[in-house]
Each structure stands twice: as structure tokens, then as C-alpha cells.
Amino acid sequence: MPPSTSYPPAKPPDSPAEDSESDLEIDLEELDPQLDLGTEHTGRKGLSGQARDTTHQRGPRIALRTLRMGGLRRGAKRNGYGELGQSHGGGYDDAEALLRDEDGGDRRYSDASAAGGDDAPLLSGHARNPNRRRGSLASETLRRVVLRLPEFMSGAAADRGNQDEEVLKEEDDPSSSRLVAVGSSQSTRFPPNIVSNAKYTAWSFLPLTLYNEFSFFFNMYFLLVALSQAIPPIRIGYLSTYIAPLAFVLVITLGKEAYDDIERRRRDNEANSEEYTVLQFDEPGKTGGARSTRKMKSSHTPKGPKRYVPEGDRLSDIQEEEEQIEGFGSRKSRAWTTVSEVSKKARDLKVGDVLKLSKGHRVPSDVVILKCLSNDPAVQKHDAEGPRQEESLLLDHAADAGGSSSTRGLTEDVREAAEGGSNGETFIRTDQLDGETDWKLRLASPLSQNLADEELVHLRVTGGKPDKKVNEFIGTLELLPSRQDAMSTAAFSQDEDNSVKAAPLSIDNTAWANTVIASHAITLAVIVYTGPQTRSALSTSPSRSKTGLLEYEINSLTKILCFLTLTLSIILVALEGFSNTKGSIWYVKIMRFLVLFSTIVPISLRVNLDMGKSVYSWFIQRDPGIPGAVVRTSTIPEDLGRIEYLLSDKTGTLTQNEMEMRKIHVGTVSYANDAMDEVSTYVRHGFHLTSSDRQALVSPSTSLSSAANVGATRTRREIGSRVRDVVLALALCHNVTPTTEEDEDGRMVNSYQASSPDEIAIVRWTESVGLRLASRDRKSIVLEATGTGRTVVKVRILDIFPFTSEGKRMGIIVQFYEKRKPGVPSLGSGEIWFYQKGADTVMGSIVAANDWLDEETANMAREGLRTLVVGRKRLSAAEYQDFSAKYQEASLAISGREAGMQAVVSRYLEHDLELLGVTGVEDKLQKDVKPSLELLRNAGIKIWMLTGDKVETARCVAVSSKLVARGQYIHTVAKLRRKDAAQENLDLLRSKTDSCLLIDGESLGMYLTHYRTEFISVAVLLPTVVACRCSPTQKAEVAKLIKEYTKKRVCCIGDGGNDVSMIQAADVGVGIVGKEGRQASLAADFSIEQFHHLTKLLVWHGRNSYKRSAKLAQFVIHRGLIIAVCQTMYSIALNFEPEGLYKDWLMVGYATVYTAMPVLSLVLDKDVDENLANLYPELYKELTSGRSLSYRTFFVWVFVSVYQGCLIQGLSQLLTEVDGPRMVAVSYTVLVLNELLMVAIEITTWHWVMVVSIVGTFLMFVGSIPFLGEYFDLAFLLTVGFYWRVAAIGAMSLIPTYAAKVIQRTMKPPSYRKVQGI
Question: Bias regions of kind Basic residues — which residues (predicted)?
């Protein structure tokens, strides 16, 4: 129970008197505990000049890094990640301090101590948890003491809404959290960092493959038939004649599966063998004692009156304190730890390893970023000078509104020292993880960024259990006194001397596996999750064995054949009578008949089909039109010819993710292509500076150079002015940073870094027309004239409003320098402008009234360009100060902070902006995407685009790629949260089935949760569906839903790690070998290098594979059925006795050497050539109905088999003898010749292999006759009677069959005959 003592009530959250979190409100007295003015309620002024009441005596010192880094992120938008790590300074010590405080003792300072370290206010005290006010110290501390939450979760739920509290406790169970000692061995064993796309292990291969094989009915049927031959009464012929074919089929199938899996493992091994640089921390000797002791809290701390210390002394004292705190660890660390670099393969990386990553490196596992070190020499030089400026960090940087100019100058130095150089920032590309094209900014924790490499082993990371959430992470980073402390699992509390420090970690401090480092900086990161526990691995479903639709269709036909076999057996026994004769029991006779008729379900069918699949795979991989194609799953090539739904990724699949500025409109004139030269001329004139004043700079109000515009008309001068203004706006309003890097030839080249490729494209364009971004940091931007290299514009950045998916716009407030001189201009000395760019949907209401914006943005959108509207507004110094004060006040609010800040921006800035122009940026499509999509649509394939990118981006690509037809209505469903609205959208779509649906991930999630069937029933009717902001799991779920609902074949194509789940969920998964990785192509069934290769894969290879396999399957069934009919006729003639007609070798030879090669040669048949197949994609559309192998065609073949079998066996018995070697010789010879000629009749396009196989098989049969004396009457074969009987029976069998085929083709020609003009 909490004590009953009352505490002073906390002030309201927004009370100005309690805004202690503001960096503007830091008192000098807070920095030194010895400073005391004698009273507890003394009015004083902070640096901003505002009076405040101090209601508490100040506690322990705030270290300088707290102030520096706290100011660094002021006003930045933060996600609520809780106050992880604050409990390290809490617990009973806080309770003790609280009770002492009641007696007038020294009260602990909540901001500095509760969050666990001098860095913590950056994340948990200031930015992460703004509602931690001094006024609520008592109640907050008391709450912590009473609840005693586990260390990992203390305070984590404090910042969340009540509705999320239980969820957080359940998901972030501290019992499943992990402690990771940086650079050291771990006390817990974690899984190895191995990528595996293999389906089987050495132990699971045989059980799984055998299960998959015998799950098919006809394999199980043959197994039972083979096993039945072990029973003497049922045995017919040799046991090997039944066991050998089955074993052969299994060996072929298992061998193919093994080969495919070995290839997957080989490719995985390539990824696992990638080399990485790891920091190795060695200790030459061990310390004499055990773990280093930490100073305990002393209860004898003197509490005498504080004295005033001159400012200079305070500065030196604080600097000395900082050096002591930092020096303690560094001296100790350097004495006992040496750092070296070693190379490790990806598979050998372990949790706790510190990776050294640079630009272009794929991150091999989930890591937490510790340090970011710039490669830029200028930045490194700045870093070296940084420590000299630390004494100035005492003052804050927002004192521009008042105070002297010297204070302002000092403030700028402060900000420069804090923000320049290696600021712990790096960019990563996540398109392989979530499909988003924008680069993501990642930050090193300030606790680790400033540590020497040797001290990294003193760090310990606490993280939650592995999960799929790629956009969330909650953890803590602790700096402990020694390496042994970091390696232990014990909990540590923060000491008064700050020897233990802690800082929260969030998603901003991480880089997940398969992301790519995009910055030029060296990034040091510690591995937290490896192998199967990484986010990308958990988001990927396990590999599964895929079975083609043709297999299922043949399986169902086999059941029909088996039923016919059983029926026929029972009928034959019934005709003889069920009475037991000659010691045979009736059911034994039925069993013998079943064995005799087992050829009806031909085991060779699997062999032929599997060999056919191997041939199709060989064709695909050797096709020069699809270079680099790889077949990774050779069991489903026929499904390529049955695709009805294509689900495609966008980034890297349809687009190259390379942006290019294509068009700009300035109100009266539009520029594109060659007209950009005119823009360059206007820019050159607009930023022309006379050589008389080398210090002069251009500002928006600078008039155009009269010398440069001699003779220009007034209209041209106006256009020139507009062009200059819009180019200047585009050169300033962005978040791009220029960098230099070394190219392959060793030359230094300029490049740009930004989170959005759009912005880089625009900045590159401004450089191409004459205005280059020369340098940029957090406080200034410098622009140069490209032609002269002279600095023409320099601005001071006052505020930045970053782009958000909700706001769809970004803005910047800048102050222009009038002269090139050192120092920072006062607010009154330079022009202040607000620039903003954004989507036309939001900017239309922000800019001033005009009559051309809507029309021009619509025109650009029709061209598939991504449009941005650019505007500006001039502010006076007073207006800016008024805005800044209100904005700062809104940023400190606890409830409704974001809305309040946006309201201030809208009120003061976002209205009546001067409209400068509209830009059109093109996302370059992959080669031949437009014609490929059109061809696939004509082939009857419905195309869905599933992407993790933004709604606007997806819309533009859908239009530019012609996925959406010109003028087609696009129905957008976004931010859907209400069920009634979801139902209304479905009703609307039902009435407009020719429209395109554009839906975001949030709305899709609602439909998949509440309206699965209703949604998919409507969506499959639409010609196109575009889903944006999709998670990998949602992509896979959509693919499964379409499969379940439509029972159609679904193909998924993608190039990134975020597409793997979708690819594996599809019936056919196609992976594109992307620029950034091979993960999708490794997991796919088919791998290609370009999207346009998909058309040939489907329309040509897919069509051929399906038609060939359908013909092959039916012919093999015919081959087995005809011999079963002959057997039936023979048994009837023998008074229904189950005696074999063709025994032993004749039976095996018929299914193998005498017919196998000609039948298998059907896999080389083709009805049309490739050009016709591409010219008439409608031919592909026919296949989706499955007419090539249907019940109708099946029963036609059954009828042909019955006709030919009855004729061949009946006439053989009539013309020779009922039972004897002469009848067998005639019957068997006609049977073999009939099959060879039937193959010839079925061939559409002859191939030399077909001719060789038919002629060769015939010669082989003739050559083997002398060895068949056991079965044939060889003397009879030398007589004329044998030949005329064979010719007559063969003619009567084949001529009617061939005549029927010719008549049908004439009366009702197939489509391929029509397009051939025959």
C-alpha cells in the first residue's frame, strides 16, 4: 500500500510554469547542485528570458551530453516507445529518495536519473515520454515502487492508451526478452545465422517425399498391386515385373526432388558464405579481481547550503566532470581491450558480434546500430575539432528572439558542434523487406555513438522476443562499468556518479536482415537476432512441395479408371458365377482380375510425365530469349499454361525504382525534354551575380540581372522570374544531403542521400539546369551556380516539417543570407520564406486561388507522372517569432500534440501560398512492361499489383504501366476503419465491375478480417486491383484467398525479400533477380531476370508444357487401357478365367522399350510457332478452361481404346486361335504397330527426334522378335499368313480412328488451325 502522506499536486500538463522539458527553459542553476539562491520559490529567468517559479531544489547535475543531445532532437516527431530502461534508476532507491524529500532532504531529479543515464532525456525523458513532469515526480515514483514492474517493462506501458496496455504487457513479456552482451560471448545459445530455402533435411527427405508420392491415388494403387504379388494365390507372373516399375518411378521422382533441394542448398550456401567484417575485442590479460565494483549510493552526502559560483568556474567544473565520467571508462577499457577486424562468413555470425558495414552491404541479420562514422574527410576533420567546443554546449540554440548578438553567435557554434560531423545517422534501403522505395533514416543511440570502439564491450542490449513486426522494436541499451558486467544477466541500477547509463532503443536504432546500407558512412552494429529469428525469416512461410493442377486432374481420372477396373473384374466373375470352382474362391478371382487389369492405371504415366517435366525445364533454361532463367521447382511447368491471376510486386518488378524529372509547369508555360535548355538559360540569368561584389548572394527579392536580360521582353522577364523562383524553391525544399564518393576509376564524384528517390531526382534536375546543392547540414543550405561554381544562395534553416503519409507534404522555413560573411544573421536582417511542396490533393486548398493547377496535375497524372505542387510564402520576423512561440508551445503538449502542432502550422503558414509550379517525376518502368502487361491481359490473365509503397506512388505506376486503362475509373479505399463504410464500398464496386480498385493495407486488413468472402467475390470480378502498404503476410493471404475462392491457378511475381511469402503461397512463384538481392529468386519456382520474360514463360513455354503433358497423359492412358481391353477379351474367351494374355517380358517391354520413346517424343510437339503464340495471346486463354485434358477428351480416348482393343484381340482370336503363341504373336505385333502409328497420327509438327524414336523403336521390336520364342511361334512369323493378318487388323483399327480425326478437324477446326490459315 502506498503511504497516505499527501504530496504537492502536479500542475496541469500544459502549464507554462511546469514546462521544464523545454530546452529553452534550462536554468543555469540546474547545471550545478552547488548553486542556491536561498529560497525554494524564487522567481528567475531562463535563457529564453521567461520568468519561472522554481518549486523544487535542484538534484544531481545534468551531464552536458544530456543538454546537447536533448536539444538536437527538439521538436522532432517521436513514436511512443515507452521509457525502457528507466527502472535502472528506480526501485527502492527512488522510494528512499522520495521519503527523504518529504523531510526536506535532497530530492532526486526525475529527468536525469529516472531514465537511466545522461543520454536518456533524448529518448525517454524528453522525446519519448513527454508527460514526465517534475510536478508528477512523487506520484510517478510512488507508482513505480508499488507496482515493481520488471526491469525490461517498467514504464513501457505508461505512455500508451488504456486500450493498448494489456496488449503491450502480453506481447512484450519480459520473461522472453533477451540480453545481448556487445562484442562478447553470450550466456544463452541462439540459432545460427543461416539462410535456408531447402524443403528437406537428411532425416525428413525420405518420409516426406514418400508421403507426397503415395498421397496420390494411383501410386498407392500400384503399391497395393505390387504388394499383392507376395501372396501366392494372387501372383501372376514374376514379382519383379510389378515391383521394378514402381521402384523405377520412385527413384526418378525422389532423385528429381533431391536434385532440386541440393540446388536450393547450393544457392543458400552462396548467400551464407558472403563475407562480413566483424570487430573482435581481445583482452591480453584478466583483471585481478572479479567484476569491477560500482560505487553504492551514500547516505552521507553533504547537504549543506549551495553557494554561487561564477559562470566561468561552472563551465570548467562541468567540463571537468564530463571528462572524468568519460575518461573513467575509456582509460580502463583501453588498458584491457584491443580491437581488431576479422572476416567472417554470414553463417558464422553470432548474436553479439559487432559488424562493420559500409555502403551497399546487405545486412545479414537483425542488428542494433551502435555508431555511424562518416567517410567524408571534411566531416572527420569537423569531428576532430568537436571536443574543443563542448564548453559552449551549456547554452541552448533557440535564443534568437531575444538577447545579444554575441549570445546568438555562441548559440550557432553550439548547434554546429552538436549537429555537425558524425551525427550518428545512416540511411538504409528496405525495399527487400517491406517493398517501400524510400530510404529510411536510422540513428545510432547517443549512448554508444560517442564511445571509443574499445568501450563498446561495456554495452548490453535488451530486446524483446523475436516477432514479425518489421516496423516496431522496443529495447534498452545499457553502458556498464566493465565487460564482465555486460556479459552477466544481473540487473543494474543507475549510480549517482553515472557509472551505469541506459537509453531506450526503438525502430529508429535498428536495421533488419536483408536491408541494405545506403549511406557512405561506416556503420557499426551489434547482431541481436539471427537466422530463423530475424524479422524477414519470421515473415516468410516455410517452403512447401507444390503439385501441379494436371497432377490432380490425372489423379481424378485414375480413380475413374480404377473404378472401371473393379467393375469389370466383378462383372467377369459374376458372368462365370460366384460359386467356387476348381478350388478358387470368387474374391480371389476378383483380386487376380484387378492385378491383370492394373495396366488400366499405367504406372508408366508418372515416369513419362516426370520425364516430360524435365524436358520442359531444360527448354526454359536453355531459351536464349529468357537469359538467366532458372527452374527451381521442376514439378509444375504445366501450371505456367493455366494461370488466371497474376499478383505482381511493384518496386523492382514493374519499376526500376529510378526517378527522373520529366516535366515542370510554371503557370503559363510547361517545360519538358529539350525545352529544359530554356530553363537552364533562365536559371543562369536569374542567379547571375556581378563580379563587383564577391560577397553578394541571391535572395527571392533580388531583381533579375539587368545586364543578363538586355533586350528581353516583359513577358520573358516575368517567365524568367517564375522559373528562377520555382527552381530555387525546389533546390531548398527537400531533405537531401550532398555527399562525395569514389567511383571505380578512383575519381571523387558527387552524389546525393535522401529518404525519397523523388527528392533526389528533383535535386539532380536543379543541378542539371544550373543550381547545385553544394552543402547542407541541419542549420544551413548552400547553393552554387553549376557553370561558375560560385556560391549564389545561402540560407539558414529555421524549421523543417517532414513529409508524412498522412500530411502528403513537406515544408521548410529558411532565412536568406544577404552577404557571404561569417556568423548568423539576426531574424530581422534577412528575408524569411516558407516553402512547401506536396501532393495536389492537399496543396490545392493551401495555395492561393488559381485556374490552372487542377488541369495540369490531371494532365501529368494521365501520363503516369508523380506530381508535386510547389508554393511559397514570405514571413516577417515578427510573424515568424509569433509562429515559433506557438509551435514550441504546441510541441510540449501531452495530449493532442500532433494535432496541435499541425493546427499552428495551418493557422500561420498553410494558407494563401503563392503557387510557383508543378513538377512531374517519372518512376522508370522495367523494360517492355507496358506491352507485356497488355499481352498478359489479352491472354485472359487478371493482374493485381500488391506493393508496400504509398498510395500515390502505386496509382502513378498503375497508370504509367497501363495496368489501368486510360479513362478507367479508379475506386480508392483508404484508411477504412468502420464496417458500414466497408460494406458501402463493396456495394459500389458490385455496380462498377469495370473499375480498378485501389486499396491500402489498413483497409485490406479490415476486409480480410470481417468480409473475406464478400471482398474476394467482388475483387475477382474486377479487371485490376492495386493494393498498397501491404505487409508480406497480407500479400500471401491475398494469394491464398484467391486460390481458395476461385480454385484457379495464381502466379505471384516479385523481386524482394518481402515477396517471398507471396511467392511461396502461390501455385506458381516467379522471382526476379533484383539489384539488391536474390532472396525472392531463391525461394521461387522459376527465376527470371526481367519482368517481360514472364510473357514468354507463360504464353510460350507454359502453353506448350500444358498441351504436351495433356496429350502425353491421355496417350499413356490409352496405351494402358487398350492392353486391358485385350486382356478382357482374352479372359472372356477362356470362360472368364483370370489368366494373363501377355506375361512377364511382353508386359514390361510393351510399357517400356516398345512404346516409351515414341510416346515420350510427344513432348517435342507444338501446334503453333512462338511468333503466332505471341501474336495471338487468346490461344493461351483457351487453356484456362482445361479443355486439353477434360472428362470429354478422356472418354473419347477411352472409347478409342475400347474400340481398338476389342478389334485387335477379337480379330486376332478369330483369324488365328483362341489361345496359343500364334494368336499372341499377331495380337502383340498389331498392338505395338498400332501404338507407333497412333503416335504419328497425333503429331502436329514433326521433329527429327520423333522420326528417330518411331523408326528406331520399330527396328528394335523387329530385332528382338528372335528372342521372343518363349511367347511367339517364330515359325508362323515367317509365313505370309502372319503379315496379311497383321496388316488387315491394323488397318481396321487405325483407318476409322484417323478418318474421324480428319472429319472433326474439318468440321470444327481448333483455334491454332484457324490462326495458321489452314
Answer: 292-306
